[in-house]
Amino acid sequence: MEGANGGGDGDGGDRPWQSYHTVYTTAKAGMEGVDKEKVQKVVYEMSKGSKYFQNEERKEAFINQKVQNLRIQCAKLTEADLVHYRKVADRRIVELEASRDLSRIWLHVDMDAFYAAVETLSNPTLQGKPMAVGSMSMISTANYEARKFGVRAAMPGFIARKLCPELIFVPIDFKKYTYYSDLTRKVFRIYDPNFIAGSLDEAYLDITEVCKERNVNSEEVCSDINKPNGQYILPNDRMAVMTFVSSLPIRKIGGIGKVTEHILKGVFEINTCEQMLEKSSYLYAILSQPTAEFFCSVGLGLGQKDSPQVRFRKSISNERTFSATEDEVLLHKKLVELAEMLSVDMQKEGLCGRTLTLKLKTASFEVRTRAVTLQKYISSSEDILKHAKKLLKAELPISVRLIGLRVSQFNGDKCSAAPDPTQKTITNFITSGDVNRNCSSFPDVADLDFVSDAETNLSIDNRQTSQLDWRDPFVGNYLSDGDHQSCIVQKNGVEEVQTPSNDATSSHHSGFTEGSTSFQGQFEGINVMNESKLREGARLNSCCQETTMLWLNDYKCSLCGIELPPSFVEERLEHSDFHLAEKLQKEESRIHQPYVPSRSRNQKDGITRQSKSKKQKLSNKEGKYTPIDSFFVKK
DNA sequence: CTCACTGCA
DNA sequence: TCCGTGCAGTGAG
User: Fold this and answer.
1) Which is catalytic among the residues A32, A95, A97, A202?
2) Distance (Å, rounded) from C-alpha A148 to C-alpha A167?
C-alpha cells in the first residue's frame, strides 16, 4: 500500500488552515456553492490558538499516529495472510448477500432545517434572511440563506457570525419543535403506526402495506405523498442498490464520522462504499470482526439487522458547561444541581441504577470520566450526590468547564416500566418518541404517566391549570401564528423513499481500536429491513372511512368543495391526506388554546408542563394510536 | 467493570 | 468574551 493521501490532508505548511479538520466542512444540503476554502480559513482564524483548538490538534495528532500504526500493520501482512483473509472476507460477503431482503418498502422522512423552518413559521419576518437557531457558543441548525455563507449546524455562533455578520440568531425552543414534530408524527402514524422516530425531524416508515393496500409501487407513493421537492427513490432491486452504493462517499453512511472516514481513507484508501468490498480482506485482517463486517455490509448496501423495536434506555445523564473554575465550592454547587435534576428525571421515568459516572471536562477540553458501581440501586438526589461527591473529590485540584452525571445499569424489573401488554402502544409511543431526548428543560412524552411529586412542586398552582389549559407551544418570542394552519403539509419536506435492505450484519460495528458508533442511521436513504411489523388493517380502514366522509355525493369534497370523481382514487387519497394533516393541525392548535402573546402571559413553566402532560394523557387514553378518526368528526 | 473515544441528532 | 447536550456503543485493560 502506498500513498496514503488521506484526501485533503494538509501538510500544515503554507496553508495551515487546510490541516484543521472540522466537522462542518462536509457538504450539506444547501452548501453547494459555498467557497469551502474561504470558510475553512475563517474557521481556522477564529479557532487558532484557543484551548479548544489545541485540544483538537492533540486529538488529531493522536489519530494520525494511529493511522500510521495501522498502515504498518497492513504492510506487514504476508501473501499467505492476504490469501487467507480474502477467503474469510469472501465467505462472509456471500453470507451477507444471502441475507439481503428486498421485500420491504421504507420511507425515510427528513425535514429540511427543521428548527429553522419552525422558527420562520412563528416569525415570518425571518423569511429569506440568514438565520440560525442557537447561541453564540453553538448553532443547532441554520436556514438555507445562512448556509450560503458556510454557516451550519454544530458550528459555534461566534464563528458563524464572522462568516455572516448579518446572521440572525434565534434561541432554541424545543417546546416549539416538539409541538410541530408531534403533528408530523400523527401523520406518520397513519401510514405506519410503528414508525421509527429518529429525532424530532426524522422518521422511518415501513410503508410496504400501504403500498400493497393502495396497489401502488414506491414510485407512485413517493410522488403521491409529496408533490414537490426532494424525494429520492431507490428501487428495491439489487442492482439499483449496488449502483447507488458504489459511488457513495463513505462519510454519507450513518456511523462513519470524521475519524472513521479519516482512518478508512488514510489506512485503506477507501473512499467509496464500493471500495469497502475491494479492500475487505484488509479490513478483516486488520480490524475487529464486527467492524469489518459492518463495512462489508455497507459495501453491499445492506441495512441493519434488528428492527429497532422497543428499546429501553440504558442510561440517563445530564451535563452542563460553564466558565472554567477550580473553586471547589462552586463545583460542589454545580454537582448538587446536577444531582437534583438527574434525580427528578429518573423519577419521572421510574428509573433506578447502580452505576454512577462523573464526567469532567477540564479547562483544556480534556474529558475525563470516573465511575462507581454500587451494590444497591439508587435514584434519589442524596444518593447520587453522595457518590458523585466522592468521585469528584478524588480529582480535586482541577479546573473544569463541564460537569456531568450519568446513571446506568438500571434495575430491570421494578423501576423501569414493565412491558405490560396493555401499555404496549403507549410504550411504543414513548420509545419511538425520541431516541435521544433533549434537555430536561422541556417536557417530553415520557412525562405522561409519571408526573412526579417533584414536578408537581414546580407548578405554581396546578388547580388552575386544569381549568385553563394553558398549553401553548410558543411560549417563545415572536408573533404568533395565525398561520400555523398551513404548515404541516408543505413544511415537512418528505425527502425520499424506499428501498430494501436487509438484515445481515450484526447491527453494530465498531470503530477500530477505540471508537465506534451505532449504525442506526445507515445511509440517508438506504434502510432497514425488519421482519414483520404488525399489520394495521384498522389503520387503513380509518383512512378509507374518512375518505368517504369527505366526499359529498361521492364527488365533491365536503371541506373545500373540490370535485374529484370516484375514479380518481389516488388523487382522492392524497386529497384526504391533505385535509387530514390540516385538520390535525387545527385540532392541535385548538386544543392548545388560542395563542396569547407572550407578554400577556405570566404562567410559569410548571404550568405549561402540567397541562401538556395532561393533554398527552388524554389523547392516548384509548391506548390505540392516536384516534385519528376523531379528527374527522365535524365539530 | 472502567475509561476513553466515536458518532448522531 | 467565544466551541453544547444526551444518548448508544466498542474495545482495551
Assistant:
1) A202
2) 11
